[in-house]
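If it is no trouble, might I ask you for a protein's amino acid sequence along with its backbone structure tokens?
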Amino acid sequence: MPEIKIGIPLHGKMAARAFHQPSFRECLTEGGFKPLYFLSPYYFQSIDFDPEQYFELQTDVYEDNFKKHFLIQQMRLLRRFVVVTETTDLRFRETIESKLFDATLLGMAGQMTYVSLLRRIPGMGKLLASLERLFFTTHAHDRQFKELNIQCVLTPGMGNFGFWNEGSFALEAQRMGLPAFAAITNYDNIVNMGYRGFDPACLAVWSRQMADEVIKLHGFPASKIEITGAVQYDRFMKSLPLSREEFLKSIHLDPQKKTVLFAGGVNINHYFDVYRVFVEQREKIWPEPFNFIVRPYPHIKLLGSPAWQVLEKLFTGSGAYISNPGSIDASGDRTEELRQDFTFNDEPDELNYLLRFSDLMVNYFSTIGLEAAICDLPVIHIGYDAFAFGQRYGVTTKFLQRQTHNRRKLRLAAARIAMTEDELLKHVSAYLENHDLDKEARYEYAVSECGDLDGQAGARLVNMIKSRI
């Protein structure tokens, strides 16, 4: 039986780490598929890929189309906010704040009024997506669909905010009569990324909770939804080749000591406060010496900052280990960071080890808190800002805590929230003394978000596509 060629656009980290990981590629091959990957220019031009299986995603065509037409810009702006949740309310205000001093007073007032009035009208998202499909078509990959004999496509997201390029790719496939399937790649996509840009032949979601949200918030039919689980987390279900002792020794840490992992965000002020508490005042944290690991957020806003260079020296000078997933060399080259998004072999990455072999993780309400719950790692979320002067509201802990997906009862029950430094010290001590605190809550939270944690999400996604072609 000939292989079924499936086109997969990869524009961001989450999609690359889900759909290019070895286990998913193996599932595709076993299911009779041959994946043809369409990569954003910053990926395609930075790494040497097999030219028969990897192609450049024509993001320039999509971006030029977007910049050329004022109407499509306004429709996408509105489409981001028509799914009304606490998170999109916050993002709308953040957008206003970011434009406040650049736009004219009249223009800003007009845009605020226009979005506020229209975003709550029933059916507005569906109307906007239909108009966009009708009047702003692209044909960037038509020739490749024909010449490569692509028979279906799989995209991350549904052409909503953050997935514009993948949505345009799917629409081009649909215009040529090809079925376009979609899979959600992050747990906040349904509540945070606005209304979809296309209707997939079938949508893969992680859990029943996510399926209910898609039906309620997007009006998507239940008959076109399948619960597959989270493909990118299949890797956490596999055994690790190194033991805890072997791994910690490999990064020059003492396996006899407790290990605390700090996974930060883009707000660099948080790193200075963590340095103050966990390094300068470490005797208050735990009476015995402990390993301290810093996992910086892989974003140029943080890692390209001169302040990060200072922090990195401070942490390493104190004996902390820096687990940097987004290293940038002296010339600004990001090739190594980009290569890490494409797992070419089946070896577990460093984060996999850290989440399974640390004793505790400190975080600021990010996705990695869910990954920790999957790996049964106790988590403390810091809910205060020691340094808030001059900070935009969008990077504060108050902003993070108000988002829809961060207010779920199971998420809050699965971790401890420190609203003061004293509470942080108390929670650290409690978890280091007893790793099993909140163990059942962590499991319940992980299952509520991800569905079955059996390592078979990739296989279920492939079966979904194959059954509906």
Q: What stands out?
A: Residues 328-332 have pLDDT under 50 and may be disordered. Residues 289 and 443 are 30 Å apart (CA to CA). The longest helix spans residues 86-99.
